Write the structure tokens for this entry.
Amino acid sequence: MKRKVIIISLILASVLIISGCGTEPEAVECPEISDCPECLEIDCPAPLGGEVPFEQDWAGSGHANSTAEAFRHWDEEDDGLVAESCVKCHSTAGYIDFHGGDGTEAGTIENEVVALEVTGIQCAACHNPAVVQKDSVVMPSGLELTGLGDEARCMECHQGRESVVSVNAKILETAGVEDLKDVDLDAVTEGLGFRNIHYYAAAASKYGTLAKGGYEYAGKTYDGNFAHVDSFDTCIECHSPHTLEVQVEKCVECHGEGEPQTFRMEASAVDYDGDGDLEEGIASEITGLQETLYGALQAYATDMIGQSVVYDSHTYPYFFIDTDGDGEVGEGEAIYPNAYVTWTPRFLQAAYNYQVSLKDPGGFAHGGKYIMQLLYDSTEDLNSALVEGLVRDDHGHFAGSEEAFRHWDEDGEVSGSCARCHSAEGLPLYLTEEAEIAQPISNGLLCETCHGGEEWPARFEVSSVTFPSGKKVALGAEDESGLCMSCHQGRESGASVAEKVAGLNADTVSEDLTRFINVHYFAAGASRYGTEAQGGYEFAGKSYVGYFEHVDGFQFCMDCHDAHELEVQTANCFACHAGVDDVKDIRMSEVDYDGDGDTEEGMANEIDTLRKALYGAMQAYSADKVGTGILYDSHTYPYFFFDTDGDGEAGEEETVRANGFNTWTPTLLKAAYNYQYSTKDPGGFAHNGNYIVQLLIDSIQAVGGSTGSYTRP
């Protein structure tokens, strides 16, 4: 076998030399290759010459360090062999064997590897015909990552050896049940032991929930592939493929001087570990969360299990009994006979994630947000009080774990109708090519999503915006709101509702109206421009306000919202609107729109009262005109449901898609559209409160509700 590996190395070396050198090498004596293996369907090479490309780079790398534990661990095994479960990544021959480069079946290990013959990871491991076309990897969870390109060769080994799937499988096996719901998470379970993800599982960190290398808690959502920026988004774009070192000199071009551990991106504008420091690098944020989780693990072990624990990252099996109870790893504690053995499922889940966060020392760069989510959730599961002051997720545009970006995971791509606003590359394509086609799934937006001007970091210039109604508004040269409104405009309009109900009897259920028309989320731009955008359904014979003009300096999206945090810059609001500490309490008029006699309440409260009145009027109309009750749930598609028990309240069994309301009259559909419109722009009171009030009052009137006490702007 050793001879075969050497021959393959020579063959690949010759290929590299012949194809990669600019000058013709000097001919040397051809090595003895009369036994060129038939399993490789290539011609035996011509005489070798010159030096092996990148040999010196490789020689100083971890892959070449044949004296390291990673390659010497099996030298003293009784059979003298590298364990079959380890050979793929701890020997060149095993890696070639796994990929079928020795003529055996790909995906399995067929041949034994003598431990003493292992000499690190040689050129032939990655540079052989069976591997060079590799572009997919099956992760320990069983999930396959495809379309990877050359980095797939790295990810085959740097993926870990465990996952949420294997941890759950072990918990179920030892508990003797088939469903985690039937597991007593706090019961010490015989046969349950620590599960170790293994070392340098960078691919698991980077691909997050798409790989499921961490223990992901039920009911939680997690970040997917951490996409950095173009040209620095794969293993071999950030690491030299031969020295393996991070190419820090390229990092500093954008991040400035310093070590990668000190870097954080503008999008990471929250204090994850709760220490008040928003300038520290993501590596430090992770360290802070690790310390909190370790404390939670130790407290749980002592209080719930009754056996104190300590951790040593350098000694297998890592978790040990704290024999003296001092919380520190003392002499004689970090030894195998003192291994911690009283495991509960809950303790295992959290300890596994703690190890995941430590065994990828570059996790802060590979997938820092995923790592922090695992640490946060583990801490919360052990003791929810400990996460007070911590932050799990980024702000909206960069919250890769949220439904806005995870919705398409099972589809494999973001559909063309959604890609403009729910993928990192969709908006630039729309703005430059006016095209909307399917895009790769994103983990939130990227810098390049908005910063695509001619000179970095200039943003895209959008001089006009066309709304779903077909209405177009022009923007001044100083107004960058067009970039925001390219997405924050909704997906439907009053025009689409009017088109759907055209020619139908206003109060008769129609077979043509089986689907609710949903404006979609955060249509702030449509609200701001009122009737100039016609985002709401505007009733015939009524007039509606247009663009809401505020005051100089606070007219445009980014005058009021931070471009990255997205939060309203409330301190600026309160400078003028004195006496309030919540923007929802701000009002600019003394008119009592909702008729409750309170002219001091904020515009948000005026709208809320009218919204509730419209909901009640819709329910009364539906019962009278349609003969069925109607319910609303803002969090569940398709939002409107049949009131099957007639109690007027949205029950858990009622708010399911199969019970979606589908007996619409044109009048009810118009009112329901405006109700949803007022709900899905939660900042509508500030964007254009008068427009929202007009839509609500007119809708109440349309479905027969009383509007006598209201004042319409």
Remarks:
- Confidence is low (pLDDT under 50) at residues 1-49.
- DSSP finds 26 helices and eight strands in the chain.
